[in-house]
Design brief:
This protein is of the alpha/beta class and 206 residues long. It has ten helices and seven strands. The protein has one domain: P-loop containing nucleotide triphosphate hydrolases (Rossmann fold, 3-Layer(aba) Sandwich).
Length: 206
């Protein structure tokens, strides 16, 4: 995990010159974002720096707002999965200076959002991980962005066998939205750091 260790060292150095450093960990579905975020957080905590962690998927909307809306499936996924403008206001716009955020957390069993408080008091670094993180509404609030670049085939093979059977959903919903993001926002170029899954696998990262 040398590449992650080097990345953490770079982030620690940047944090020394910031009251609170906001790190964005971007990447498409199944690229390894969550695993990398957990490992980064563990390494950062060993430096005695207090870390805040935000998973964007915790803040998706109810199913009725993102399925069966009459729009193309990929548009539902890209534009409606999150309340983009609302999250810019109550989450991304407050990360730098606020110590207490009130955020909508999606409850899968209830299929609804439940508002909870998130305490960031004393957090020197806040790590935000999620897909489509570099969209225009959010990127400007991130101090440093990392993009995990992983080929579609590798990511698809990480899905369980039953999920892979529904190729139509991938083709019409997920992959079209990913293509739109890559072409429209060019996240690989705009990110401050790009890490490939081949680099991670080379370092026996899991």
């Amino acid at each position: 995990m040398e590449i992650i260790e080097d990345l953490v060292s770079e982030i620690v150095s940047k944090a020394e010159h910031s009251d609170r450093l906001i790190i964005g960990l971007d990447g498409l579905s199944r690229s390894g974002k969550t695993t990398i975020a957990k490992n980064m957080a563990a390494m950062l905590e060993e430096t005695d720096i207090q870390i805040g962690m935000i998973h964007l998927d915790d803040h998706i909307v109810d199913r009725t707002k993102r399925y069966g809306t009459g729009q193309a499936e990929w548009k539902e996924y890209y534009f409606l999965q999150w309340e983009v403008e609302h999250l810019r206001e109550i989450l991304f716009g407050k990360l730098k200076d606020d110590n207490e955020l009130v955020l909508p957390f999606y409850d899968d069993q209830l299929d609804q959002q439940v508002y909870k408080k998130l305490n960031l008091t004393g957090k020197k670094i806040v790590l935000v991980e999620g897909i489509f993180l570099q969209r225009e509404e959010w990127k400007e609030q991130l101090d440093y962005t990392i993009f995990i670049d992983c080929p579609r085939q590798i990511r698809f093979e990480r899905e369980n066998a039953r999920t892979r059977e529904n190729t139509g959903k991938f083709e019409n919903r997920y992959w079209k939205a990913e293509d739109y993001y890559l072409e429209k926002l060019n996240p690989k170029v705009k990110a401050d750091k790009v890490i490939t899954c081949h680099q991670l696998m080379k370092g026996d990262f899991e």
